[in-house]
Amino acid sequence: MCIAAFLQVTVIAQKTFDTEAYRPQYHFSPKEHWMNDPNGMVYYKGEYHLFYQYYPGATVWGPMHWGHAISKDLVRWQHLPVALYPDSLGYIFSGSVVVDKNNTSGFKKGPESPLVAIYTYHDMAGEKAGKIDFQTQGIAYSLDKGRTWKKYAKNPVIKNPGIKDFRDPKVIWHEASKKWIMTLAVADHVRFYQSTNLKDWTLGGSFGKTEGNHGGVWECPDLFKLSTKDGKDSKWVLLVSVGTGAPNGGSGTQYFIGNFNGSVFTNDAPKETTQWLDYGKDNYAGVTWHNNPGKRKIFLGWMSNWQYAQTVPTEKWRSAMTIPREISLEKNTGHYQLISTPVKELEQLRKKIQPTLLELNTSYPIHLQELLLQFDLAKAGKEDVGIVLENNQNEKLTIGYHPGKKQFYIDRTGLSDNQFSKDYAGIHLAPRISENEILKMHVFIDQSSVEVFADDGSVVMTEIFFSKQGLNKLTLLPKKEVGAALIDGKMFDLKTIWR
Predict the structure, then answer these.
(1) For 151, phi and psi rounded to 5 degrees?
(2) CB count, 10 Å around CB of 33?
(3) Is-contact 124 86, C-beta < 8 A?
(4) Is 37 marked active-site?
(5) Active-site position among 37, 100, 123, 168
(6) Residues near 254 by beta carbon (within 8 Å), at least 6 away in sequence
(7) Least confident of 64-68, 247-251, 482-486
(8) Whole-model pTM above 0.85?
């Protein structure tokens, strides 16, 4: 194809994405077909790599591949060819990628450091035959900045010890022990493996059989060290997703904060405590980027829920990712918790430097928006504060806070396109952690999703939504003037990434 023809096809595709029903306008989504978990997120030489679970044959889950995209700014993405295909050992399930700077693997043959992917093989034939050892761990490597991949000839590098759920390796370099550490989800807990070369692994300790939420199988772990904002302390953080049992039903991601010595993770919180990264229905299997510049820890999640992910009313594609978020550590009421905030790179999407100033009792036309709101709860009294998104078909989505119950909520019951799953419509809740009388809400609205960062990111809610007609009108709660409850309201119009 000549360059002119290619550019014409690209423009046509972008116009389609710009107008396609429910297509996210600034979240990552596949061009077509099925996508789920983010995989292998790694930064190398100016490029953020995003791999993801992908089935190029349909809009529902199928034989898993690793899709691939890159970005220089975490906002606009370039789709690349499929990176990893299924082979005789099985489908390519979730995993991670590391930059092998010191060539511990011995794979290096040219100027580039090897990028080494560590992933789960899922032998579907073995599963159908009734075996339980159908999941193993394999590796592949790239010597051209992630453009092409070669699988290791001696795969699998970790065989299955006789456990049905044995998957989703997340690998990091542990400086203190000078070893690679793999955190692996094993049924109802995680195990830690150690290696000096990414090929030969030995089992260390385990964590979680009696701690955290066990409403579903543990999946997609992530282990990393995080410093406090003042740099005076640091802790190890362990993320673990569960396919069922989240606070509002279905999929969710819990986290633990404690210490790790290269083999054993010790949780600081009591065993009965469960901390959730996101209380919305639609943030699952998220992990962080390896090797990103500076000390930032950047997270990305799959924006859906296994209760209805395969039945949502999109046609050519299914699923999107959350906006990237920076994870930080903060002590609150004597305990550490994770804070999630939108990455600063998203500010380039704002159409104007100056925002629209919002008032109560006024309706505003909306499309793609970012909101920065502050409410004085003392002045609001018993009235809910928040926002309502509506259209001319009497559909609405409410995002609010109930002072009496000290709960945030997202109400999807007012949307008509909700028949695809009995688990979709509902009012979903999150507890407020802060005691401050001033409540803050940072909200991102896309074609079919809302992400709420409350009280500077101490509480987060992510939800997808579907309306027969786009939600194009916004009003603030309380809908009547209540003692100047709104003390600050700003709204930015956002650009689409397809233009």
Answers:
(1) -80, 145
(2) 19
(3) no
(4) yes
(5) 37
(6) 212, 213, 239, 240, 241, 242, 274, 275, 276, 277
(7) 482-486
(8) yes
